Amino acid sequence: MTVSRRGFLVGTAAGAAGLVISFHVPNLVKAAPKEAQPLPSPNAFLRIGSDDSVTVLLAHSEMGQGIWTGLAMLIAEELDCDWTKVNSEHAPAAPVYARAGIGIQMTGGSSSTNGEFDRYRNVGAAAKVMLLQAAAARWKTTPSKLAVANGVITFGDKKVTYGEVAEAAMKLAPPKTVKLKDPKEWKLIGTQVRRLDTPEKITGKAQFGIDVSFPGLRTACVLRPPAFGATLVTFDGAEAMKVPGVEKVVKTANGVAVVAKHFWAAKLGRDAVKAEWSAPEGGGASTEKLLAGFRELAKTEGTTVKDTGKVADKLGATKLEAFYEVPYLAHAMMEPLNCTVKIDGDTCEIWTGTQFQTVDQMAAAGILGTTPDKVTIHTTFLGGGFGRRANPTSDFVAEAVIVAKAAGVPVKVVWTREDDMRGGYYRPAYVHRVQVATDKAGMPEAWHHVVVGQSILAGTPFEKFLVRNGVDATSIEGIAESPYLENTKAKHVSLHSPKTPITVLWWRSVGNTHTAFAIESMVDELAHKAGTDPLAYRLALLKGKPRFARALQTAADQAGWSTPPPAGRARGLAVHESFGTIIAECAEVSVEGGKIRVHAVTAAVDCGTAVNPLGIEAQVQGSIVFGLTAALHGKLTLEGGKVVESNFHDYPVLRMFEMPKVSVHILPSDAKMGGIGEPATAPIAPAVANAVFALTKQRLRTLPLRLEAT
Amino acid sequence: MKLDINGAIREVDADGDMPLLWVIRDLLQLSGTKYGCGMAQCGACTVHLDGKPVRACVTPVSSVGTKKVTTIEGLSKDGSHPVQRAWAEADVVQCGYCQSGQIMTAVALLAKKPEPTDADIDAALSGNICRCGTYARVRDAIHLASRLHRGAK
Predict the structure, then answer these.
(1) Which end of chain A has fewer beta carbons closer than 10 Å to its terminal beta carbon, N or C?
(2) Structural domain range at position B48
(3) How far, in Å, are A30, A257, A395, B27 from residue A253 at the CA level?
(4) What's the pTM value of the predicted model, to 2 decimals?
């Protein structure tokens, strides 16, 4: 796909009379957030072509999670169109696509499907009303006398397709209210629907940011600081300019960009730039020293997150105490970061795979001294996101704008794998110190929990929403509200958020990646200390939490918990809620040659309404793979402010030969719909660690899990 | 120099040590072959040279010579290759970025071993990283492609 074609579609859709239909989608939802919402602009969410094609415009980015299909299903369900004629397209960046309640256009928090469930169904329902009105007018009857199925409207022996009445329907006023289908009437929602983006993605035609190409576009590679805290002093681009294909060497905010005819020349040129950098303060960050400091800090009280009182009284000498640790992690999406920018006077076009359209739009406008409406963002497919492409600082977009501005030509900035891995914005490292006093039955009576780790949100525009009383919600989510602590009357949770030069960011399932590890590991330790079966112990704690208990019981039953595992293997459990979804996982492991091998993972999922079970299964499988990479391999090390790891040889990720058999059980549920892109990530590390303990009696409290040599 | 790509002879002006990947992507505008690591660690750039899978990111274009290069675009015009059909049936893709490489590796495996075992798949596909975690369905699709191919005979 070329850029010009895509630009044409977006730019002229509204003007192509007769080919498209535009729908205003007023706020029809009774349960919608109370704040006033602007009316969406025409053409915002749906176009119906005269060829009966139905194009759904996505307010969110497709990065693998399947909304290209899932959000289209929501509209198609209410529209009663022909599913084989439906496809999706990323919407441009515009206020109409902002997430209700957040005010920005973004993709994250596992919220695309549940957050759009009403809006997208309403679009489909409103469109259907208008199409029926147009058909009724044509036949001089009333809509109630018409029947509709698969995009064909019938009246007696007369019939007309949606495409044939689309133009007339476009001229009608949208309905003020619509009645959505009762779930019993759903034909698409709840069924296994294959992905709509498959044809492009199996033929190499899908356009990712890195594939953007148009006449006059140049490619740039950027030399960035070698260490966190280092700044550019001087540089010499003479050698770079000698590389055939290199055209320009320009300065960025804190680096040097080499602009060339193609990537290879840009990379060779970049590698030939001579630059002098200031030494980072204090010799630069070292993860060894940082974590040692975090451990000391964990022995002291931090900012109070939750305090019921009486914890200190109950924590006597009989308490169980443990430290749990997780390292810094890179997102390492398969598609390295990249961004294409074309500046023309006071307007600017950007092509990139982003999770943060309107944030990036504002950042670009700020750099160019223009207004956000002058910045057009074309969202390409994202070759993975996992949070890295939702950066409050818009780092990879802002840099590309600076390069394009300095170079005076359209530029695609491409990060090498090494640039991407060493470029910062990591899942922060954390240390947890957990102390638990138990009653005579071994149940927790007092729970004291100190978390130490960098705040993701401090210093960002999100700080004012998500950092309350000095507590970054993303650092401690899942602790105080753990279902296991429901009946523990004495609880104290506190947080230290030390500052370091290392930039940090959300990473698939965010705080849950470490809080679930600490809580579920400690609960397992308590079960073993009490001499109780780990499942029975958990179920006893979850007495007032039937959804958690059901998920856990299902995962255990389906994994064969009541029967012994094969010789040389053991099983471990964990259950955790994040993004409104409860997921229990049972891991079956062995140890081979001193290494942990995960053979099987059984997952039970309670996510409320399951829009597309086929997609849910894929997300759970994928999240488990992502979490297993962190459990078994993931670790970034810093020495002297520099990141030691650079590519997949020293930052290994899970590969095919390590892939366990994953079975996913989606539980029927009337609960409020949760998210599904992230929640299965968190339980896997503790499930594996708990299984390793059952097998070896080694309690591994640090990720990645490493067995002691025996 | 001349390259035989997807059945057509293409003339390119490139230094001999330029990796085949960038020749394919940036000089020939065939963007289905992806860059992931630049050091033969991830398999996203997998193409065939005379039917054998190679990592284009570490293959100097000068080493290609008269060998026939096949990229994902050369597999079929419309996604109708049995492996692509199996991929669609098994609903494998997520973000999709690594999938060209996964498919090219799978096609080469099936050409060599029409009925691969799970161990064969582990051995052949472990060089292809997928961060979305599509491995289970990649495996399913390869077995399915094997059945489709046999059924077609």
Answers:
(1) C
(2) 2-74
(3) 48, 10, 11, 30
(4) 0.95
